[in-house]
Design goal:
It is found in: Cell membrane. This protein is mainly alpha-helical. Helices cover 81% and strands 0% of the residues. The protein has helices spanning 3-22, 31-38, 42-45, 47-70, 72-92, 96-124, 130-158, 163-166, 168-182, 197-220, 225-247, 261-291, 296-303, 305-324, 326-336, 338-346, 353-369, 372-378, 385-419, 431-478. The radius of gyration is 22 Å and the shape is globular. The relative contact order is 0.13.
Length: 479
């Protein structure tokens, strides 16, 4: 394949990745409008977000495994079309049941796209270009994660919420057309399909149970018996899934992939970074619009600082990763979170807005420079590229969902501590209580970054020790 064609394909796959990722977060800011327009309670309107995330996480591993068997490109292309059909259905929906059904279709297509895009990129690019290519794709994916509230706010300030979904159509159709013309043509390998149904029959209910516990706990408190029981059931299903995967001949997930320390720590550290990224998605719109009383359009423009800087730093980090390694670049990038993290912890409403823009810009640079995708895919063998991409996408979505729940829960814990009694809404008469809760949440987020920093530092140090030991052994043999 010609070099020019590779980069066009990267643009096409990354554009679809951007759409499928941004649709997990862009709807958040539209929930009040959807609730009002469709005449449903706010908590029911929030199912529009939950259904999408739950179904994606439930389907990702299935399509990752399937794509390793029948081919990643066909799964990606079909997934793109399904996602566009779902987007059209969402935009045309005039009732909550129709909107939820269309979101389910969207999630099906999105899972197919997310499960295959990383594997396609590592397939069409040479090893020495993986960092650059995955870094560019990472820019699209991370911008999709972070740009949702900002872009959603801008769209809603100009047109109605239906256009949040309609804007996907021209981008997706162009990306599909490019892919159909340029992707390498390969026959479907349907004869080799084998699905570990026993494994999937425990994995799917495990994910659904875990998410129900997360969302229910967020609403009623995680100390409730019912919520704790669901977490226990999810843990039992996880144990059953691991037991099954160890004993079947062709498992849904070959657990040997986790024996690679770089892969496992890459997934964990990426989840932590995505969790922290979602703190901004939850807390900043409240702070900008409620505490600082800015308009949705102004708040959206300020929040776009993160993805705009991300676009620059992610490809740059990928290029550097091709030379010094993705783990090392990611380790250094985590230090860049420290300054914006400290600003978020201490910022006050009477500070100049410039401080907040500087913090968001620094966060965008750090988030883009963190090379989670090259780090994860580079530590997975060639035979694991499909499932590794699916696991990476699952880790990202889990990080986003846990970050959503954790940031919200910590915010209201902090507000309640300041108020002296339990609160689960914005304290309109006491905005300083919200500021305290926000600082409390960002302090925990800062600790999560320090944990990721420690994990990658330990990984790099252990590799250095192993490398020194091997060098000493070689020198002893030479003597």
């Amino acid at each position: 394949m010609q070099q020019r064609s590779r980069w066009l394909l990267l643009l096409a796959t990354s554009s679809v990745s951007f759409m499928s990722t941004i649709d997990a977060s862009i709807v958040n800011i539209a929930i009040p409008h959807i609730s009002r327009d469709l005449k449903v309670p706010m908590n029911e309107a929030e199912w529009v977000v939950s259904v999408y995330l739950v179904l994606i996480c439930t389907l990702l591993i299935f399509f990752g495994k399937l794509s390793d068997q029948i081919g990643r490109i066909p799964v990606f292309q079909v997934g793109t079309l399904i996602f566009l059909v779902g987007s059209l259905g969402c935009g045309l929906s005039q009732s909550l049941p129709l909107l939820l059904a269309a979101r389910a279709v969207q999630a099906l297509g999105s899972a197919m796209v997310m499960a295959t895009n990383f594997g396609i990129i590592t397939q069409i690019f040479s090893v020495d270009q993986h960092g650059r290519a995955l870094g560019i794709n990472s820019a699209f994916v991370q911008v999709g994660n972070l740009a949702g509230p900002g872009l959603g706010g801008l769209i809603i300030s100009l047109v109605n919420w239906h256009w949040i979904f309609f804007v996907n159509l021209p981008i997706g159709l162009i990306a599909f057309w490019f892919g159909n013309r340029i992707f390498p043509k390969s026959p479907l390998k349907l004869a080799h399909v084998h699905v570990d149904w026993w494994g999937y029959s425990t994995f799917a209910p495990m994910m659904i149970t875990f998410f129900v516990a997360i969302f229910w706990g967020q609403a009623v408190g995680f100390h409730q018996t019912g919520v704790l029981s669901l977490f226990i059931v999810a843990g039992i299903l996880l144990a059953a899934f691991i037991g099954i995967e160890h004993h079947v001949s062709d498992p849904l997930i070959d657990l040997k992939i986790f024996a690679n320390r770089g892969f496992s720590l890459g997934i964990i550290s990426a989840m932590l970074v995505y969790m922290v990224g979602y703190f901004n998605n939850v807390l900043m719109p409240f702070y900008l619009q409620e505490t600082l009383t800015l308009s949705a359009a102004s708040a959206g423009l300020i929040l776009m600082t993160v993805p705009l800087l991300n676009i620059i730093s992610a490809p740059t980090g990928g290029i550097i990763a091709d030379h010094i390694g993705a783990e090392r670049v990611s380790f250094y990038a985590l230090f860049l979170f420290i300054i914006p993290g400290l600003i978020f912890i201490f910022v006050q409403p009477n500070w100049s807005i410039v401080w907040l823009i500087v913090a968001l810009a620094g966060f965008g640079i750090a988030n883009g420079a963190f090379q989670n995708n090259p780090m994860i895919m580079g530590n997975a063998g060639p035979q694991f590229q499909g499932i590794a991409g699916a696991i990476a996408a699952l880790g990202r979505n889990l990080g986003m969902t846990i970050g959503l729940s954790l940031s919200t829960s910590l915010l209201y814990v902090g507000i309640s501590l300041k108020a002296g009694y339990r609160l689960t809404s914005y304290p309109q008469q006491h905005p300083q209580w919200f500021v305290f809760g926000m600082h409390f949440s960002y302090l925990i987020a800062f600790c999560l970054i320090l944990i990721a920093l420690g994990l990658l530092g330990w990984l790099l140090n252990s590799r250095r020790v192993i490398s020194n030991s091997l060098n000493q052994q070689r020198q002893s043999k030479d003597i």
